[in-house]
Design a protein that fits this description.
110 residues; 3 strands; globular; alpha+beta; 3-stranded antiparallel β-sheet
Length: 110
């Protein structure tokens, strides 16, 4: 099991507001109890990211993401570069929504 490290008590530069990681730490412990390495793939494991990186992202808008503790981050990786237009880009969300209303995963080709 990976050791979950406490975030540093002081940042090298002042942030707009202090970050909180209590919910993230609780979920990391639970994930490590249930999943070997704490993630479904090694590349998403705790030891692959800096200490203060978001552990569990709950939503994204544009290039910003928010973790379970409400901390906001800029996600430069954009889903391994697959999200080139940013998270929740309105024209893409609207097009996907329209398509989902027609149904999905049909038995026959569609």
């Amino acid at each position: 099991m990976a050791i979950i490290q406490e975030p540093p008590t002081s940042a090298p530069h002042a942030a707009a507001s202090p970050q909180e990681f209590s919910e993230s730490r609780a979920l990391q412990l639970k994930a490590h109890r249930l999943i070997p390495g704490g993630a479904h793939t090694y590349s998403k494991g705790d030891d692959q990211y800096p200490e203060r990186a978001p552990a569990f992202i709950v939503r994204g808008q544009g290039c910003h993401v928010w973790d379970v503790d409400g901390n906001e981050f800029i996600e430069y990786g954009m889903g391994l570069r697959a999200v080139t237009l940013g998270h929740a880009f309105p024209p893409v969300v609207e097009a996907a929504h329209r398509q989902m209303q027609l149904g999905s995963n049909f038995t026959r080709p569609a």
